[in-house]
Amino acid sequence: MVRVLLPLENDALFDKKQVLLTERCLSRVYDIADNEEQDDDELLNSMLRTSRILHLSETEIYFLENGDDGPTSPLNEIRAVSSLCEFLSKASAQFSQRRKRTRRELDGPVTSRACSSGNEECSCSGAVEASELIMSRNGGASRAFDILERLRIRLQDLLNGLGEAQMSALSSEVGVACKNWREVKLQEWATRQGVISKIHAAEYRSTGRGAAGRVDIEAGCVILEVPRSLLIYSDTVLHSELGQVFRMLESPFLEENDKAILWTIHERYNPDSFFEPFFAALPQTFCTGLSISEESLTLLDNTFLLAEIMQARELVRKRYNRLFPVLSATFAEVFPQDLFTWENFLWAAELWYLHEIKVHFPDGQVKACLIPVGSLFNHSLHRVDQLKVQDCYKCQ
User: Fold this and answer.
1) Which helix (H) or strand (E) holds 311?
2) Do residues 32 and 4 make contact, with C-beta atoms less than 8 angstroms apart?
3) How far apart are the C-alpha atoms of 275 and 372, rounded to whole Å?
4) In this structure, what DSSP letter does residue 388 have?
5) For the segment 264-305, what is each residue's pLDDT rounded down to a tens digit?
6) How many CA atoms lie within 13 A of 66 on its CB side?
7) Domains in the chain: how many in total?
8) CA atoms of 395 and 4, how far apart (whole Å)
9) Structural domain of residue 218, as residue ranges?
């Protein structure tokens, strides 16, 4: 028997997801039996239902109905299948390596070997006998390995099918490579800084700015590699020109999110900023509930979404009113009132809301980052296993 434990990344929503798993009698632990009675379809369906729940976003959890096992959304389905396929591929490879290692240990000349089964003593003196010993004693494990392989192959086929379905749905709208000089400048700057990318900026008729592949991209391949020096996160902010001022202003007056927003406004309008090409390529306006027009809000009357939007807008407005005009009065040269306006504060807040990506760092911490070029991707704020800072100080 082989025991499989579906991976759990640092997830602020896991408690809610655990409740959903319990309600559906699902578990992260699966035993791949060493007999032929276990049904592949039943096992795969159960693992896939679990993976869907583990990859739910906060919004998807909010609207999930009782007993709904999915698919919840096209994005959730792709993540659930992709993650499970990747995990089983790794598990299958590790299992195969262990089997090979065991064979090598048994293939050499052996005069005597104590077997773990009872008090039986086994004697063999060559490769043939050793191979037969593995097959006879690990036959069940071989069947479990075969099951893992069958599940992996089926998931890969399913993932390919999902990709083809997505491409078919989007076939009427192909992204056109951006010729805007700001986008071209961003790509050139990123390349000079060591970014290795399989994508480029593209315009889509229905959704606007996004990403398109430079080449055919297979499932599981690394699409983007970004040097750590290009990541924008808490350390970037603290080591900037504003860092000394931020260290003078203790929490709770100035929270981490506030520092990120203030730094963003400062850098956006600084022509000498190292990140100037990144900020120059960003849209001048965003389409989120924070900046939605009053006319559009009337269409949401008597909905939960309207209440959430109004609550979020009020929260951001309170944050701004707490900081200004106090900061402008205290540090007039650092936070001039004509630059740190409500409109600029709202734009910076929307930027982080839309493009913040959670990244694993080598010390085990998960930090919110803005990633030049990476901002072209659609992504979940709670998906943290796609992007990791490697020992070579690159983000993949």
Assistant:
1) helix 304-323
2) yes
3) 8
4) B
5) 999 999 999 999 999 998 888 887 888 888 888 888 887 778
6) 1
7) 2
8) 28
9) 176-395
